[in-house]
Design brief:
This protein is of the alpha+beta class. Helix content is 17%, strand content 38%. It binds flavin mononucleotide.
């Protein structure tokens, strides 16, 4: 288990009652080589400690990641005034485990993958169908994005002194204290 995982698990436990503690900011490189960022839900860690996020295959981020799979994730724990930044590379999970993840979603959540294509022009009558589709079968648009992390930076704002540390995979994940 990488040593930074204990730090993030502890922050998660402290803020587990807040929905927002699972909201993370995922930054990608746009097709025009400029930055893109959006909020997504943290869904868990894989057995090899990749970060898991559910996305729609039709979304722009999927296209961006196809061209450049370098990402950064920013995760703020507001009560603890603690920020983590993760650098990594992403991949789309193609294996059987998609079904297991899909089965864990509520019917309401599943229906989102049958909505009209994200980012395309809205046609008014399409909104009528937004929550009515029963999704028995796994949607072809449902994808699990996995982020293989190679750099973690943590900053905690205490009243008097701030703490900053980082872990780098190429340096055997040895904790380094750095200036805040
Ligand atoms: C609170 C919140 C949670 C969200 N969770 C997700 C998510 O888990 N996966 C996702 O693809 N988009 C999620 N979104 C929507 C994204 O922020 C974004 O609008 C959408 O994915 C389209 O982004 P793109 O055009 O850059 O691909 C969420 C938005 C909010 C406000």
């Amino acid at each position: 288990m990488p040593p930074w995982l204990a730090q993030i698990s502890s922050a998660q436990r402290k803020e587990s009652k807040l929905n927002a503690s699972r909201w993370i900011q995922l930054a990608t490189i746009g097709i025009d080589n400029t930055p893109r960022v959006r909020t997504v839900v943290f869904r868990g860690w894989s057995e090899s400690y990749e970060m898991e996020i559910y996305i729609d295959k039709r979304s722009l981020k999927n296209e961006e990641l196809d061209l450049n799979n370098n990402v950064e994730v920013c995760w703020l724990f507001s009560k603890s005034k603690c920020q983590f930044r993760f650098r990594g590379t992403s991949r789309i999970e193609l294996g059987d485990e998609r079904q297991r993840h899909w089965n864990q979603l509520s019917e309401k959540s599943k229906s989102m993958w049958s909505w009209p294509s994200p980012g395309k022009h809205l046609f008014y009558d399409q909104t009528k169908d937004f929550y009515v589709n029963e999704m028995e079968e796994i949607s072809v648009n449902f994808a699990i994005l996995k982020i293989d992390i190679f750099h973690v930076d943590q900053l905690i704002l205490h009243n008097t002194i701030h703490t900053r540390r980082r872990w780098i995979r190429n340096k055997d994940w040895i904790e380094e204290r750095i200036n805040p």
